[in-house]
Specification:
The protein contains 9 helices and 12 strands. The protein has 231 residues and is an alpha/beta fold. 30% of the residues are buried.
């Protein structure tokens, strides 16, 4: 019998915490809930946590510090942040601390659950093998620092653009479907996917930012399928 995934939920707002526990357990997961960072840290010491959902703004130890401590202690599972702050720099700080995904309050419970499922679909070997850095031509990509440089010059990238680029590079030479990009970058389920025009728009931005005078020839369109990275 497959092990029931155990989710650590650390949220200081009681009503939200109770509502999330109810919805997450309804989906068949086991939940360890805590009301603050210190309690969450103690709950994580059991060692059997598969995924952590952490509020960023909490009294005492905030979500960023809690995540740093969990990573220092060797927790390698996916971490999803809940926050009322939507600024790009706040999100980058979370990713630099080791977060895997971000949901900004107010959010849909269905969206949160979709992201949880997407993160849990990544096996431990997949997580361990995720690409941290990559260089090709005059471009250097640091997925840990969330930075892209072209010819030594820093290029402004959104988080989704970086995640799309990472997935394409990790599957270099392979045609990646638009539905896979929506599933693994955005966390959508097969039966709730938006228009794939979202993918085409983001790829156009990637090509514009990374391409030279002759355009971007390393992100190729695969007719009726999706896209392929090929340096």
């Amino acid at each position: 019998m497959a092990k029931t995934p155990v989710i650590l939920l650390v949220e200081d707002e009681a009503a939200m915490r109770e509502g999330l526990v109810h919805n997450i357990e309804f989906e068949g997961y086991e939940v360890r809930a805590a009301a603050d960072g210190n309690s969450g840290y103690e709950a994580a010491k059991s060692g059997d946590i598969d995924l952590a959902i952490l509020d960023v703004m909490m009294p005492g130890m905030d979500g960023l510090e809690l995540l740093r401590r969990l990573r220092q202690d060797g927790f390698g599972g996916p971490v999803l942040f809940l926050t009322a702050r939507g600024a790009e720099e706040d999100k980058l700080e979370g990713f630099r601390a080791g977060a895997d995904d971000y949901v900004t309050k107010p959010f849909s419970v269905l969206e949160l659950l979709a992201r949880v499922k997407a993160l849990l679909r990544r096996s431990p070997s997949d997580s361990a093998g995720r690409l941290d850095r990559f260089a090709f031509r005059d471009i250097e990509v640091d997925f840990v620092a969330m930075e892209v440089r072209k010819g030594g010059k820093l290029i402004d990238f959104s988080l989704k653009e970086l995640e799309m680029l990472r997935l394409l590079i990790e599957r270099s030479g392979e045609a990646v479907s638009r539905s896979d990009l929506l599933k693994y970058v955005w966390g959508y389920e097969e039966d709730s996917m938006p228009t794939t025009r979202t993918i085409d728009t983001h790829v156009a931005r990637l090509r514009s930012k990374l391409g030279g005078p002759d355009g971007c020839d390393f992100i190729k369109t695969v007719h009726k399928v999706g896209y392929k990275f090929q340096d």
